[in-house]
Design a protein that fits this description.
Length: 461
């Protein structure tokens, strides 16, 4: 039985516990629910919590510890004749082959009786562990139902206990999110510090040449090792600006039209069609940019005497702008629809036209949400990779000409980390330095946007 199936069974048992707890609370009340401290639904939730939470915690702990325990058992059961004389890497490879053989995958050596016996023992241990997990988890869930249902009485503060559990869950979720962010930043800082120990920070931040090829051997040629990141950031900003020049006006104007001018029938058809753009895979946009938009721009440029590269920032930015239109349009539309109708009525009562109401009342009231939508679109544009790879190329050119090929930070990160890399060279560690700088740039954009929102936000009593 898979972990997903076991989770579904535990959830079903929790729902059964909810029904049993609610029915017992009603039977204890005898038709007078006011005699209960909490509503019957809280008593049912109390039983469901005692059924589901311990069982799910046990399942999570089991899933985390099972691989380590199974690995220890596997290593302890290997005969000395098999592992004698093996170095740690060779022993690790042997363990991997045994696990692959047990799960039916390809192994890197000939299967002998000793290897087959070890794989059979490993499979047997996993089966026993799986059966034990099912029995123990379901037993804990059923015992939880019995324990919680037996403690239901009129004076039971079920609502307080359930709300306390919900509060704990929310605190844990918030803590996980915070520590995840701290872990991401810490890993970037640690790896980037290793990079800056090899390459000067000033050279990386202000250098004008990007060629992250370091020599592996002393006699190797063609490895200049230039790590000036200015061309990469310039290309990122150039493509992002082009994309936002397309997405923000089109998305914002379409949101204003659908929110304030369009009828219900047109809105019910136009908005879902517009949001379909957000569901198109980015690789499809990349194909569209590489096979249609880029050749079209190049042909048009040649017809008027302009030298347009076959891979250009203009093609990538235009297609990327089309891709992120729904982010601006849909979110801005929802924010403007959330503006109270009383504000519109008051503006009309003072003699304002519809356009004046939109400019002077609706847009200022919806400014925080609109800024948030634009920020989301900017983040989406900065983080896009596939369209840039297929339409803008990999050349790190320092240029402000949108007709030339450029590259972005995310494309270079992917390029540096593709394949088997040695995480002890400046070439690979440069990806973490790029990620760290991009993180701080995004953080500064968020802080700037928040300051703009606080300055121009309209407050209503």
């Amino acid at each position: 039985m898979s972990a997903t199936t076991l989770i579904l069974i535990i959830l079903v048992l929790s729902y059964i516990g909810y029904l049993l707890g609610r029915s017992k609370a009603r039977s204890i009340a005898g038709g007078e629910l006011v005699s209960l401290h909490s509503l019957p639904s809280y008593h049912g939730a109390y039983v469901a919590v005692w059924c589901g939470i311990p069982a799910l915690l046990l399942l999570a702990l089991w899933v985390v510890l099972e691989p380590q325990v199974a690995d220890m058992i596997l290593r302890s059961n290997l005969p000395d004749s098999t592992i004698s004389g093996l170095t740690p890497p060779q022993l690790s490879l042997l363990i991997t082959d045994i696990k692959n053989l047990a799960t039916g995958n390809i192994v890197s050596r000939e299967v002998d009786p000793a290897l087959q016996a070890a794989a059979d023992g490993y499979s047997s241990a996993l089966w026993i562990s799986n059966m034990a997990l099912i029995v123990v988890a379901l037993s804990v869930a059923i015992l939880g139902i019995g324990y919680a249902r037996g403690h239901i009485e009129k004076e039971l503060r079920a609502r307080n206990r359930v709300e306390r559990v919900v509060r704990i869950i929310m605190v844990v979720a918030s803590t996980i999110a915070i520590f995840t962010t701290i872990g991401i930043v810490a890993s970037l800082i640690f790896e980037a510090s290793r990079f800056f120990a090899r390459v000067s920070f000033l050279e990386f931040l202000f250098g004008l040449q990007w060629s992250p090829q370091t020599a592996i051997r002393a006699e190797q040629v063609g490895s200049s090792g230039a790590f000036g990141a200015v061309p990469i950031f310039a290309g990122t900003f150039l493509i992002t600006i082009i994309a936002m020049c397309v997405a923000v006006p089109v998305g914002l104007f379409s949101a204003i039209y659908m929110s304030e001018y369009a009828g219900p029938k047109f809105r019910s058809v136009a908005k879902p069609i517009l949001e379909v753009l957000a569901g198109v895979p980015t690789v499809v946009y990349g194909f569209f940019a590489a096979l249609t938009v880029a050749p079209m721009f190049r042909g048009f440029g040649e017809s008027i005497g302009l030298d347009v590269s076959s891979e250009s920032a203009l093609a990538a930015g235009m297609v990327m702008g089309v891709m992120i239109i729904p982010f601006v349009s849909s979110l801005s539309d929802d924010v403007m629809n959330a503006v109270p109708q009383t504000l519109r009525d008051g503006s009309f009562a003072l003699g304002a036209t519809k356009s004046e109401t939109i400019k002077q009342v609706i847009l200022p009231a919806a400014l925080p949400g609109i800024v948030g939508a634009v920020l989301l679109a900017v983040s989406r544009a900065i983080g896009e990779t596939m369209i840039v790879v297929m339409a803008a190329g990999l050349a790190a050119n320092l240029t402000a000409n949108p007709l030339e090929a450029v590259t972005t930070v995310t494309v270079q990160i992917v390029t540096l980390l593709v394949g088997d890399q040695e995480f002890d060279s400046a070439k690979t560690l440069a990806a973490f330095a790029l990620g760290l700088v991009l993180f701080f740039i995004t953080l500064c954009l968020n802080v700037f946007a928040l300051s703009i929102v606080r300055k121009y936000r309209e407050k209503y009593d």
